Amino acid sequence: xxxxxxxxxxxxxxGAAARYLLGGAIYRWLPATFPWATCxxxxxxxxxxxxxxxxxLLRESSFGAAALNVLAQVALGLLAVWAGGAAAxxxx
Length: 92
What we know:
mainly alpha; 92 residues
């Protein structure tokens, strides 16, 4: 259990470092007026999982669940960003 947790942690570290480096590289070629790095990186990471799971629900004709998944993911993601911003404003 601990070894598996450490492997996941190392994977998370490597993924975060790769996202950081790739994000910097993307903005050498594209203007920073749009979040290009986030869009490009998310297509191959967490966003692709979100899309994959939504497509699976659609293939199973679970249209309501697919719609709920899309709405909930977007709403909860925006709520998390808002909450993080609010927390950052009150922390010293």
